[in-house]
Here is the input.
Amino acid sequence: MALLTNAPRGTQDILPSDSFKWRYVEATALDIAEKYGFKEIRTPVFEHTELFSRGVGETTDVVQKEMYTFNDKGGRSISLRPEGTAGVCRSVIEHGLLNDALPLKTSYVVSCFRYEKPQKGRFRELHQFGVEAFGASSPSADAEVISLAKSILDTLCNGSIRLEINSIGCPECRKNYQNALKEYFSSHSSELCETCNGRLERNPMRILDCKSPVCKEISKNAPKILDYICADCKEHFDGLKKRLDALGIDYTVNPTIVRGLDYYTRTVFEFISDDLGSQSTVCGGGRYDGLVESLGGPKTPALGFGMGLDRLVMLMQATGCLFPTPEGCDVYIGSSGENAAVEAMRLVTALRDEGFCAECDTVGRSIKAQMKYCDKLGAKYSAIIGDNELESGIVEVKDMRDGSKSQTTLSGFVKFIYNKLISDSFDDISDAFDNMESNFSK
Here is the structure.
């Protein structure tokens, strides 16, 4: 029978053989973020379209070309979230979280949706880890957020990831820069792509973010934003650099970074890898001091970043980063006969209640087939229960790693296995400490 349909273009299935890698990456990011004081927030997959048109910006490619937008049954315009920041801002305003002690620090793992041309590292459903911090205007907050992103990437990655930073100023000092860009790019309008010619009138800064080789070449000689920022924005940017230097975080000032969304102000930054090809940005973020107010909230400084998990996992695999070994089966209990099958299930459930991974036959396999399945599971221990074991109350336990065997009673089976597995855990911890001492001595 033919498959009814395939997964939509630009999406991917994360199969059991890989899902543990994603869970490890997500858990690591959330755990490190929590150490920095960022608490997890969860927001809806879809929002009212107005949230993104006002927050992300009507002149951005995201809003104009890439959003999945539809009318619901009530006639309301709804969009799947194309990014995480706007929804978090809406949530903290709606629930009055900005009335609590500031800064408010949030983190999240979300799926986002953009109608783009799928290619390596770019999907129509993308997975993202992000953080948003509200209520702190100091460059110390910028340095802290950048430090958090670097800490996550350093923990997970072996590859060379570099940090690039820029300041795009505040709305006031950016007006003169927009005029300078408009004048410069107007002299090249015949060479610009159709999209950038449209940007020329609405938002010429977006031209700097164009991926067209021709537009990128033209942009190389465009006016630089750092020549136009006001004294306050320059002081803020100098303060950020001073703090990054103090933290020992290497960076390059890249005056062409503008990010792709309209809400950014002052600090913008990207973490870039040379191991991903054209889709080289693993993490991008910055400050957006006017976004909360534009969405109907109080005037509140804010900043954050988004980290692409699809690209991050891809990078880790490409550069040989080590993922933890997925937890395997601790115990497999085979059975022969109806009563033995019931007893095996009882013991397996008791072991699971103690926190162990235990399996028994649910298919009706022969003993030989059950043991083959046990091998495929990679079980640490196995036992077989039949009529003899039920009658005598004695069962043989096999260590599948070295083939050694021992006996215990059915009534004491759970405690026996518990002690075996706890002892194994202590041995593993001891080996880990020995390896650490060996590495330190080197």
